[in-house]
Amino acid sequence: MDTDNSGFEERFFTASDGLRLYARDYGHADAQKDLPIVCLPGLSRNSRDFHRLALQLSGQPERPRRVITFDYRGRGRSEWDADTGHYALPVEADDVLTGCAALDISQAIFIGTSRGGLIAHLLAAMRPVILRGVILNDIGPVIEIGGLLQIRQYLEARPVLHSWAEAVDNLRRVHGPAFPALDPSDWTGMAHAIFTEKDGVIIADFDPALIEPLRSLDKNTQIPDIWSLYEGLKPIPLMTIRGENSTILSQATFAEMKARRPDMKAVTAKGQGHAPLLHLPELAAEISAFINTLA
Asked: What is the pLDDT of residues 234-256, one digit of tens each?
């Protein structure tokens, strides 16, 4: 469960502009055995999102992996940025490269959930040599506006929660219809990944300023596609996961990604929406199989 604080070392590093940022380092003793895994979370999420998957990958007996999970600036244990304009993909991609350098990672397999997958696209343009493989979790070159509006709605709500039980109930009420595959431990783990306790109340663990760029959106907003950046992933082994009930990555875009990259491993996360939890057995097995083909 994500309330467990064992299995990793805490790492702090300094961004190029001086901000103090945080990462979790799982399986560091196995750093030289195989390619490490770098996990990049979604817009408002953090390193805890990957805790159960990271324990699985770092603890597998045959091929234990070193797994790094990042908190971007303004999320989790990383510092908030006084200049909210720095909550931008190019800045966050640079932070990831800085973090990898600080942790002595020259090449890795990257798992990017939602915004993390967009950052992976940028890394392919900024420093392609660092990417030995990419797993995109419910994200692609076309983002559905309806899904973004849903994300804005639940991020803006910021309910006042007085217990972890209330936090779990809140998540199940908001996301339950899209995630019938989850069991009670999954909902509890999700709550502890998303929220933190402060002054006796449970609150979302991110700077509210992150939501500002979403406030100008409406149903007629045209979101620019990034097919040109997707082309930059062509030389890199690629797997894409789509939540069966996703409102961000459409089935049409998913199919077009496969058409443009016939070698792409395409996986549907049954009974999950945006974005799938990756530690569930079927997905974890697919991820491990893909990773173990790369080195």
From this structure: 999 999 999 999 999 999 999 99
User: Which residues, including other chains, have CB under 8 Å from residue 36's CB and lie 6 or more apart?
Assistant: 65, 66, 67, 68, 105, 108, 109
Structural tokens at position 258: 């496969």
The answer to whether the CB of 292 falls within 8 A of the CB of 33 is no
Handedness of CA 194, 197, 200, 203 (dihedral sign): negative
pTM of the model: 0.96
Provide the token pair at 38: 């770098």
Domain ranges of the chain: 8-292
Cα–Cα distance for residue pair 284/290, rounded to 1 Å: 10
CATH superfamily of 8-292: Alpha/Beta hydrolase fold, catalytic domain (3.40.50.1820)
Rounded Cα distance, 97 and 116, in Å: 13
Say how many C-beta atoms besides its own lie within 10 A of residue 55's C-beta. 19
Burial category of 213 from C-beta neighbours within 10 Å (exposed 0-12, middle 13-18, buried 19 and up): middle
Enter the tokens of residue 185. 């431990």
pLDDT tens-digit series, residues 128-141: 999 999 999 999 99
Q: Which residues, listed in sequence order, are joined to residue 8 by a DSSP beta bridge?
A: 26
Residue 243 β-bridge partners: 269
